[in-house]
Amino acid sequence: MTPRLVLINRDYTRLWFGQTVSSVGDAVFSTTLVLWVATVLAKDQTWAPMAVSGVLLATGISVLIIGPLAGVFVDRWDKRRTMLRTEAVRGGLVAVLTALSFLPLDALPVGVWLAIVYVTVLTLNAASQFFTPARFSVIGDLVTGEADRARAAGIAQATGQTAWIIGPPLAAPLLFTAGLQWALLLNALSYAVSYVVIRSVGPDRQAPGPEQPGSGNPTQPNSILREFAEGIRFFGRSKFLVALTVLAVIGQFGTGALSTLNIFFATDNLHMPVHLYGYIGTAMGLGGIVGALCAGRVVQWIGASRTTWAGLIVSGLLLFVYSRQTGFVGGVVLLFVFTVPLTMLNTAMSPLLLDAAPAEYRGRVISVFYPVTRLASMLSAVLSGWLASSALRDVGGSFAGIRFGPVDTVFAMSGALVVLSGVYAWTALPRGVTSGEADPGPATAPDESLPAAPRGSTQ
């Protein structure tokens, strides 16, 4: 009988605990840096928004440039050692920044401080591009079965949502009462805890990626590019992986408008006072936790494929209904409900990806899937902002007694896109079979870490 304090199995529980501590530290760190740049380094400066956007740009660059190639190395290296090394690198970087933060602010020019922040953020996120696919692969070895993998993904989603509910409120008091260095030190210590916990995960439960014949020395540029191309070819030949990516991209274009325009919708359409805007984030965070915790059970009932397309259709319809709201309470409730199926479908994608990717390709599959969807999210944010402020700026009026304006029109269009991606998923994803059965892709060595069908699935 499994003890109550064990989640799925002991090794996964250890891994989860380390990531929980690290996630809270990351949430505090990210919020602290943005606050410090905006309120200290760039205080009262006209270029303050640009300085803050530089932090976000550094994150995006690492995902889009480092992410795709990182999978080549992750597939070659021992996954547990890769996680340990990246935690050591990230902890060391934050420790160096912590030491520098004890210097007086005027010891260095503002431009140098900003450069240090940007380089640190870029390097931290570059290391994360190795950590994330390695952790994904390790979980694939530690957790088997579609339902348990969905549970693992749901727990990870709920943990991440909780970290972002807990972390940011801690950041401001730490920064303005204790000081920047103590907020940074908290994150450095979180990496140390994660490192210790990962070392305790049994290495015998994980199989390093098999050597690929004729791949040569993985440190040589030709070998790296060749293995990267092999991963791209594998991805392109798999109709299932292509379908997953397409629907994820369409879904990102549908939901990305919220991140850019929701503040304007909340104040103009919902008539919400600015100081109450934080309740929207809380509602979405709570909805994400509920959806993540329910996802494993739903996948067990109806399967990961049905959870994915049904979640898209339902969340798209709810986003359309949200675009018609005119009151604070109704808007907050709709956002909570909207986030539940959205998180469920995100959780269901994890076991689908694990099923579709043999162990030797997992790193490259994740390192293609995540950057592509991240790019779609960034383009969605830019496109929605352009539509609301330019192409649809003068849209307004009423039809059949329903008033509409530029922002709610963008949200309605976004909801329609999400519904369309759900319809596409309904036709493209297999029914009644696992993803691996539906599309075996190119001939590869059998993946013994995945259980045989039928089955009863992370950042």
From the structure above, extract its key features.
disordered C terminus, 1% strand, two-stranded antiparallel ribbon, 459 residues, 2 strands, mainly alpha
Structural commentary:
The chain contains 14 helices and two strands. Strands 1-2 form a two-stranded antiparallel ribbon. About 75% of the residues lie in helices and about 0% in strands. It has helices spanning about 10-40, 50-75, 80-100, 110-140, 145-180, 180-200, 220-235, 240-270, 280-300, 305-325, 330-355, 360-390, 405-430, 435-440; strands spanning about 395-400, 400-405. The chain is an all-alpha fold and about 450 residues long.
Helix content: over 70%
How would you write the strand order of the largest sheet? 1-2
Terminal Cα span: 30 Å
| Cα radius of gyration in angstroms | 22 Å
**Strand count, sense and closure of the main sheet?**
2 strands, antiparallel
Secondary-structure map:
Elements: H1 10-41, H2 48-76, H3 79-101, H4 110-142, H5 146-178, H6 180-200, H7 221-237, H8 239-268, H9 278-302, H10 304-323, H11 328-356, H12 362-391, E1 397-399, E2 402-404, H13 406-428, H14 435-438
